[in-house]
Amino acid sequence: MASSKNLKEISSEKSNFNRHKSHCKICAHPQREEIERAYIDWVSPAQIAAEFKLRDRSCIYRHAHALNLVALRDRNSRALLHRYLERADEAPVTAGGVMQAITLLGRLNARGELVEPDEQESFEDQLAKMHPDEREAYAKDGTLPSWCSRPNDTKSPQGSGGNENA
Known about the structure:
Blueprint: H1 2-23, H2 32-40, H3 45-51, H4 57-66, H5 69-75, H6 77-86, H7 95-106, H8 123-129, H9 132-141
Helix pairs in contact: 3-4, 6-7
């Protein structure tokens, strides 16, 4: 009984998507990927509609909900904070707002999840937990183990291991 309900739900979801796809201007748009990327990167739907000559922002919202782009956009909160900080010099943004955005950005992990300060582990603590082979790989070429929460694209702690005057 439960399996037939699951099949019905799957069939219903597929038919809803097929209906969406057959009526959606974005699905048929030659720049569909650019439109979706702009939405995920927190560009205003009104701005996207204007740039890609779409009727209005409502078609972007319908498309985003049909393809579950909303969840991708939500996880991409780092992009929103970066956009805010990049425009700090051209918009009426307060110093307090900029500082809050910087603080919030520092509390997001590599997956875009908010980590409370008491849950954060210092990089030195993570280094101490590394196996000697993992520390060797990090020292040699900067490779961090997959369990390490520090993003791979950030720089190592300041200092050069005592060779600052060299």
